[in-house]
Structures are given as structure tokens and as C-alpha cells.
Task: structure prediction
Amino acid sequence: DAKTTQPPSMDCAEGRAANLPCNHSTISGNEYVYWYRQIHSQGPQYIIHGLKNNETNEMASLIITEDRKSSTLILPHATLRDTAVYYCIVVPGAGSYQLTFGKGTKLSVIP
Amino acid sequence: NAGVTQTPKFQVLKTGQSMTLQCAQDMNHEYMSWYRQDPGMGLRLIHYSVGAGITDQGEVPNGYNVSRSTTEDFPLRLLSAAPSQTSVYFCASSRARGSYNSPLHFGNGTRLTVT
Result:
């Protein structure tokens, strides 16, 4: 299964875009990139996912490079409530159900 | 919909005691799983189930048992608690067996302390 690499922490000014990078250089062709976040000690919350195309929803945008070896989660206008740990994970294709969460990136939104 | 409900929210056990962490979902999800989260360790998969009657081991299964007699419930049993099992436990579910195109829905966790 592909593993991911994320910076341990990042800061972002309130109101600015937060760009969180993720490296998944060993990703396979049928594996999805998923992003979750965990606010304080709550259960992780799904944000967005994609296979090869860029994706956007009401929470964020996901930019996946053409070679699929890395991706960036974009929070367009970060607020204090976006302070959380953000996890980038690669979800195996059909036939494998074990999802691996790393340590993620601690995003601190600064007033 | 309640989503994924975990009980209890907090629990303190003595070494050697047994207990069951409850997890229930009302979304008719096939896939359910248990994770533990220790400080600085991220989330580690304990056990998972792809449907009623089917369970399998994850990354750290030792010391834990599971069963899946219904689609809705996926309890996690600690037969003889050890201090190393002090952790926060999360239950998660998703719609599809493969889960590759279906997000995980997490409960809010059970915080377990073993003394």
C-alpha cells in the first residue's frame, strides 16, 4: 500500500488560503487520495477525495499532480475553526480494506 | 441520522478487567472498523469488518476481539485490560465494502484509561 508524507506542522494567517502538501510517490493507478481532518480530540472528519482529477467541494479543493505522486489540499479562506490535524491517506483499490493514517499535519490558523 | 455512535465516552479500568466498547451506525454501512489513537502516533487499525459475520485483523489486533452479528453493531472487546491499552478508540464505517470510493464516518471516540 502507498504511504504518504506530510509536514508535521504549518501556520496560516486567518483569511488566507491554506495549502497543505502531501507526497504519495508510490501510489498505484487505482488508489484514491483522501483527506480528513481532526479538530481537537473529536473523531476525524472527511474533507475530500480524488483519483486523478482536481476536485472541489464546499470545504476545500484538492489538486493532484499529473503523475499522481503528490497532492495539495487547499482551504481557500482559512478560519480559526480550521485549526486541526489534517490527514492525507491513500486508499487501496478493491480487495484491500486496510486504511493507514499517518501523523498528519497540524495546521494552526493565526488571527 | 445519528451516524456512528460510540459508548461509553470515557472509561477507567483496572489491569485485568474486561470490557466492551460499543459502536453502532444507522447508515446501513457494510464496512466498519476500529482504530486506536495514542499521542503522536496517528491512527492505527485494530480490526475491521466488511459485512455481518465477517471480521479481520488490522495493524494492532493483539488484546482485542471483535464480532459483527448485525450490520449496525461492531463491538470491541478487551478481555484482560493492560496499561498499554490506554488510548482513545475510534469506530468508523463506510458505505462500500471496498471503501476506496466511499468516505469513512467516524464516531467521537472512547477515552480509555487502564490503571
